[in-house]
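As a warm-up, study this chain.
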Amino acid sequence: MQDIDIADLKRITELVYQKYNYDFRNYAMSSFKRRMLRIMELKKLTVDTLLKKLTDTPNFIYEFLDELTVNVTEMFRDPSFWRVMREEIIPSILLNHKNFKIWHAGCSSGEEVLSMAIMLKEMGIHQDVTLFATDLDINILERARAATYHVKNMELNEKNYIRFQGNATLKDYYKEENGYAVFNKDLLMNVTFRKHDLVLGEVFNKFDLVLCRNVMIYFNQSLQNEVLKKFHESLFKYGYLCIGSKESLIWCDYASRFIVVNNEEKIYKKIKD
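Now compare it with the structure written out below.
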């Protein structure tokens, strides 16, 4: 098993930044290192051959991003979070306006976006909500847009949905085709999928609700600060921010501009511009 040192990791991140304008220089080094070792093992590369491939084969960047960005997700992940969404957060937004906007930042293969769409449909407000789903990786965005998942994944998704206490069964929302669950395209009618880099990308809209769950754990402290600043700017006053169960705003410079709405589910509300 080969190893990789900090100097090599810096050479890789610098090359990717200079050549492709993707900035991984402030990712948490321990998880970045694990991902690099995985890529090298999977593609049978050394540090030098990896650097050469990144230099000489521009299309390889997409394979690199696919392996680097963490795409392990599921529908209705943490069902208690989704119950709080349905029973407290969405009704609170609806008190102020019927039409509102949600941003799924780092949407990966789209399971969270579909979960949101199904929940909004069951609440009878699906047509009134605009969703933006963004990710760094264009390949994973294509998978999210296709809303097609291996049937073997559906058992866990269905269990989560049952614990969420949905109105129906997940089977009502998809057809089985050749071992895949193909979800009803109407669910995504109000969703805009777009490439967006949380590190280098600009603030592109204003939202009532931002979900970025289990993404910031891969960032170091200064990058978490930068990204939180972006989320703060992207939210209307009294808008909501949801982060992952292992994440916290506590150390961030912008933490004082939010209040904790639900500590267990990591839901915050913007109270200061």
